[in-house]
Amino acid sequence: MGTLLRARVLDQLGPPVDFGAVRLEWEIAKRGWRRYAAYPLATAAGVFTNTIFGFLQAYILLAVYRHRTNVGGYDSHDTLTYVWLVQALLMTVYAFGWQELALRVRDGSITSDLSRPLNPQRYWLAFDLGRAPYHFIFRGIVPFAIGALIFRLHYPSPLDAGVFAVSVLLAVVASLGFRFLYNLTAFWVLDVRGVMMVSLTISLFFSGMIMPLTFFPTWLRELARALPFASFLQTPVDVWLGQYHAWELGLQVLWAAVLLAVGQLVLRRATQRVVVQGG
Amino acid sequence: MGDAVLLWGRLVGAQIRSQAQYRVSLVLEILGAFLLSFIDFLAIVVIFHNTPRLAEWNVQEVAFLYALSSISFALTDLLIGHLDQFPQKIRDGNFDIMLVRPRGTLFQVLGSDFQMRRLGKAFQGIAVLAYALSVLHVHWTIARLAVLLVSVPAGVVIFASVWVVFGCMAFWTTDGGEFTNAFTYGGSFLAQYPIDIYSAWLRRFLAYAVPLAFVCYFPALFVLGKHDPLGLPRGLQVVSPAVAVVATVVAGCAWRFAVRHYRSAGG
Q: A48 in contact with B at a CB cutoff of 8 Å?
């Protein structure tokens, strides 16, 4: 059964052995890109909304700088850069929640995913790595450019820009690892809405999306730095601002690896529970 | 009119009864929403950890604004929160079913999805309001009490009208849902803070043209007896109910215009 399916899948994708797994992943990634590229109006609407939120948050945080010049190491330009980068990266790291896998578990389509000769986590990682560049380019660049037109922002050195690209990539992988994990709870609970709500609220707050972590009181900042969520947004932004240590990227690698590994473990436990009703 | 209210009451009553069947689940969802909403408020606390005042406002006064915005938003969400999913209704053709029923379409949208779990956020807003009022030492007068009591229903009507106007987008494109978010979630976010911190163009656009300043900012100035940093006429502080009426008329016209231009995909 497995080999037959594999043969069929690879058949559709052209030469089987030569390109192998990378080719398969490349094809999946292309589908990830295309899925979102198919709705240009939705993209435009999203850009508009990111821009409005960018302005609101920019003016709110600027008001703090009427009374001081530095907050936790950020001057007002750093903070404004922070605001616009977060709006630019929100969709790239898919901070607002993803429940595609959970829905497949609920409606049973997961059983056909599991019968394919491809680990679902690998599938979704490849898909997400195709989606993320689309969102980075089409949801990220325009809001940031608008912010840059109105406010004086901070720009990275060429080296930091390179490290920033790596950091964003790590952020996407770590975030997928986390999203995959909370989606898997669908194997145990019937309604994932509650789990989603808790995961989203906590990750949005501790990733620095609502407020830069530099604004937090020390103890809360320390707590946030110890959690995986800072790797999703705060770390890439700090890299852009040139305010980072190499170990913070190491931490991103570590969180990406840990979240993916835990995802695999939980997936294995979950699949032992699957009972296919009919067929 | 009375007939419509009665019917609305029945529709909503049926949904309340059905949700009350799963009592534990409902209580947990309300409690969850109540607790999670405090994270929003935590953002305000974090800001004031870094500054004693945001422009001319202290933390208690901003908490008051936040509470008004939060309560109005939560109650609007309770009434028409599912307008989020309205584009889906158009896409899958379910809006056509509404058209053939012997009631207005907007009326049907209003009564079709009453989720009690959304009360959790309203309770959180009330808790923050209680905190703010307990530390603010408001010099209560009949007029101030009246403005406070009226500001919530007026705020709900203004929010709801804004949601309906921008929700009409769905009649032209079902992909524009995120555009509406700028005014629904964006609107309540804007209203949580004193509007004098925003730049003038943003204020003109989102606080006056889209009348979000009348949800919290102007009523708050009146109730707290605060001098308006923007120096606008004092009369504006008490006209929220009138603004709400105008907003309703605009929303009704927009909806009617949109429905008249609606073309079903058939099916």
A: yes
Computed from CA positions of residues A19, A21, A24, A25, in that sequence, does the dihedral angle turn out positive or negative?
A: negative
Please report the pLDDT score of residue B102 as a whole number.
86
Residue B267: is its pLDDT beyond 90? no
| Position A15 pLDDT exceeds 50 | no
A189 in contact with B, Cβ within 8 Å: no
| Partner B contacted by A49 (CB < 8 A) | yes
| A16-30, B13-27, B64-78, B216-230: the lowest-pLDDT one | A16-30
Q: What DSSP letter does each residue of B17-51 carry, written as one string?
A: HHHHTSHHHHHHHHHHHHHHHHHHHHHHHHHHHH-
Q: Give the mean pLDDT of chain A.
A: 89
Cross-chain residue pair B176–A66, CB shorter than 8 Å:
no
Option in B33, B51, B179 nearest A49 (CB): B179
Nearest CA in chain B to A221: B46
Q: Is the CB of A56 less than 8 angstroms away from the CB of B189?
A: yes
Is the predicted pLDDT of residue A277 greater than 70, yes or no? no
What's the CA gap between B74 and B156, in Å, rounded? 9
Closest CA to A173 of A227, A132, A234, A120: A132
User: Looking at the predicted structure, is the pLDDT value of residue B83 above 90?
Assistant: no
Structure tokens, B87: 């584009």
Question: What is the pLDDT at residue A278?
Answer: 56
Residue A205 touches chain B, beta carbons under 8 Å = yes
Work out the minimum CA distance from B196 to partner chain A, whole angstroms: 10
Residue B99: both structure tokens together:
């058209």
From the list B222, B62, B205, B207, the residue with the least C-alpha distance to B135 is B62
- ipTM higher than 0.85? yes
Identify from A39, A203, A211 which residue to disrupt to test chain B contact, counting B C-beta atoms within 10 A and taking the largest count. Answer: A211
- pTM across the whole model: 0.90
